[in-house]
Amino acid sequence: MIKNRMSEADMKMEKNIADTNTINADPSLPRIILFTGKGGVGKTTVAAATAIKTSRERKTLIISTDPAHSLSDSFGVELNPYPTEIKNNLFGMEVNVEYELEKHWETIKDYLTLFFQSQGIDDVVAEELAIFPGFDELASLLHLLEFYRKRSYEVIILDCAPTGETLRLLSVPEIAKWYMNRFFGIEKKLLRIVRPIAEPLIDIPLPSEEVLDKIQDLYARIGELKEILESPQTTVRIVTNPEKMVIRESERAFTYLNLFGYRVDCLIINKVLPEDSGDYFRKWVEIQRSYMKEIDERFPVPKFTLTFKSEEVVGEKLIEIADEIYNGADPTSIFSFAKPMRIEKEGEDFRLIVKAPFVEKKDIKLLKRGEELIIIAGQWKRILYLPQSLALREPVSAKFMSGELNIKFR
Ligand SMILES: Nc1ncnc2c1ncn2[C@@H]1O[C@H](COP(=O)(O)OP(=O)(O)OP(=O)(O)O)[C@@H](O)[C@H]1O
Ligand SMILES: [Mg+2]
After folding, report:
1. What is the number of other CB atoms lying within 10 angstroms of the CB of residue 304?
2. Were 403 and a residue from 134, 356, 357, 408 both cysteine, which residue would form a disulfide, CB within 3.0 to 4.6 Å?
3. Residue 136: what pLDDT?
4. How close are the terminal C-alpha atoms of the chain, in Å?
5. With the CA atoms of 282, 287, 292 and 293 taken in that order, what torsion angle do they form, in degrees rounded to the nearest 10?
6. What is the structure's pLDDT at 134?
7. How far is the CA of 122 from the centre of ligand 2 (A)?
8. Residue pLDDT, tens place only, 268-277
9. Which backbone phi and psi does 260 adopt, to 5 degrees?
10. What pLDDT sits at residue 358?
């Protein structure tokens, strides 16, 4: 009984969030939508379906960062490492790391290889090392920047690799900056003076002007990319299934995306069994129903659902499933504008700040269970997955400020 009431209150809140926050993105700028989720949940299918739908009205590009190349299979069209027309108004490409390296990175890579070789590292290993961590992800993101700048497409959709890699992908701008600072933190001017004296004395090759120019350019592009990813034009959609392990991974992704400053604007729950799935699946239908409720309690963003189809969803069928998912809504809308949580450091303590606009302070209860924080306020309940920095601490106090619950951890 209580559970039902909670769920109703929650639904009311979801609805409110959706009502107040569904807005249209700035139409003069490209709209960027990233799809992520655990392996096999249906990211490629949902991303491809979304792209088909947006392309009816807006010129759309879908980029796959997944080396498995399932996007080609999904559309039944062979894609390339550059935009290829799939149908009217819809283009697709599959990022290929080797191709990227050859085309854009030779100079920098050559220098890094030389550098590692000078450190006594074996040729093959040096070449490998020269591809810095997250390089393939960065390559995809730089494409996004290129198309964003040129305004070549109105909608850009990214079909990402499974969650862990997407999180890596989205933290790449910072990592790349760090990496480059370490390697190339030398001022160009200084280098020009130092080179003739230093080079004969030390056994580390110094980067040439050309390399430095490229690095500087890359550095600027990474900064710009970060701005675009954090801007309201970009949102992330988590594809999930009503299944324990999948929900856990989605929670982790949701928390970290929030903390990195990205906007998750909705959740897409895929592979939901229809009520009339027959005797054989009766138990599964029940299990899924309880997980659907759990999903409702754990993700304070609007949710869309897609039922499990009786056959593979590829090609023409993608249009139907896009209509089912978005159920009349415009897929380019920003379904939730709020950043529902953030962490601030205060001396030795941390503060977790959670949006809770319809909650009253007097009836708040906090329960911490390992990596979970359960917030109960009357009929409203929210379960949060905590990042490591908070999971190891205890909540010591909580206060309310302008619709936000502010919890101190020590
Ligand atoms: N709603 C659905 N009903 C039936 N089959 C589905 C549904 N959604 C996805 N599938 C099928 O499930 C399989 C996995 O889907 P998909 O490739 O989209 O997942 P993915 O998350 O992109 O996987 P990966 O992590 O490998 O990239 C595919 O065979 C796809 O056709
Ligand atoms: Mg995929």
Report:
1. 19
2. 357
3. 65
4. 35
5. 120
6. 59
7. 35
8. 999 999 998 8
9. -75, -10
10. 61
> How far is C-alpha 153 from the geometric centre of its chain's CA atoms?
20
**If residue 260 lies in a helix (H) or strand (E), which one and from where to where?**
helix 244-260
DSSP-based three-state secondary structure for 230? helix
Distance CA(270)–CA(280), nearest Å, equals 20
Give pLDDT, residue 170. 65
| Adjacency order of strands within the sheet including 380-385 | 364-369, 372-377, 380-385
Encode pLDDT of 64-93 as tens digits. Answer: 877 677 888 889 999 998 999 999 999 999
Q: Tell me what pLDDT residue 403 has.
A: 75
Instruction: Give pLDDT, residue 11.
Output: 44
What's the pLDDT at 15?
43
Q: How far is the CA of 68 from the centre of ligand 1 (A)?
A: 13
Q: Among 36, 44, 63, 241, say which to mutate for ligand 1: greatest number of ligand atoms within 8 Å of CB.
A: 44
Cα 311 to Cα 297: distance, rounded to the nearest angstrom: 31
83 CB near ligand 1 (under 6 Å): no
Pair 313, 321: CB distance under 8 Å: yes
Query: Which segments of the chain have a pLDDT < 50?
Result: 1-20
Q: Tell me the HSE value of 326 on the side-chain side, using a 13 A CA sphere.
A: 23
Ligand 1 pocket mutation pick from 35, 43, 45 by most atoms within 8 angstroms of CB: 45
Domains and CATH numbers, the chain: 23-339 (3.40.50.300), 341-409 (2.60.40.790)
Pick from 131, 164, 159, 158: which is nearest to 144 by CA?
158
